[in-house]
Design a protein that fits this description.
This protein has one domain: lipopolysaccharide transport protein A fold (Sandwich). It is 7% helix and 56% strand. The protein is built from 1 helix and 12 strands; from the N terminus they run H-E-E-E-E-E-E-E-E-E-E-E-E. Strands 1, 2, 3, 4, 5, 6, 7, 8, 9, 10, 11 and 12 form a 12-stranded antiparallel β-sheet that branches.
Length: 170
């Protein structure tokens, strides 16, 4: 059960990137902003640090919501980027958080509207020696639940319990 807390904590760290009160530091080899595409793309050795969580990937794409600015009656109507719509980390994605919590996958997508973090391409989440993996791991942040989908690859969970602490057969 402790491992499911890991999933929720890792999932909770991603949406909090948008919080203004806690700084998020992103470093990469390059960054490209496109107002027309409403996105910011960080490429090459991407490293994200936020509070007690870190993430590494080859690319990180932040898709922004476009908001209409109606202004006043004499000002022209212009489009402005608003909140984060989606965050996509791709290529050797690694997550690390406090208390020996970590994860790896090929692609991690956070959908802000659904408050859903989806890990794909050989996702593995660990807390100490506890481990869970499958074809896709979905973390529903608001609902405090997770789903591991097997598909072509079966779900595998390893939970380490202390000796003599109950369990089946005791």
């Amino acid at each position: 059960m402790r491992s499911f807390l890991l999933f929720v904590l890792l999932a909770a760290a991603i949406p909090a990137w948008g919080a203004q009160s806690i700084p998020v530091k992103i470093t990469s080899d390059a960054m490209e902003y496109s107002q027309k595409a409403d996105q910011v793309v960080f490429t090459g050795n991407v490293h994200v640090v936020r509070d007690n969580m870190e993430m590494w990937s080859e690319t990180l794409t932040v898709l922004l919501e476009r908001q209409k600015n109606t202004g006043n009656a004499t000002a022209p109507i212009t489009d402005q980027q608003g909140s984060i719509k989606k965050i996509i980390a791709q290529g050797n994605v690694r997550l690390k958080s406090e208390n020996d919590r970590s994860g790896t996958c090929g692609k991690a997508t956070y959908d802000a509207k659904a408050d859903l973090l989806t890990l794909e391409d050989n996702p593995v989440l660990m807390e100490g020696r506890n481990k869970i993996q499958g074809e896709i791991i979905k973390l529903y942040v608001n609902e405090n639940r997770s789903e591991v989908i097997g598909g072509k690859k079966r779900v595998e969970a390893i939970f380490i319990t202390p000796a003599g602490k109950g369990g089946l057969g005791q």
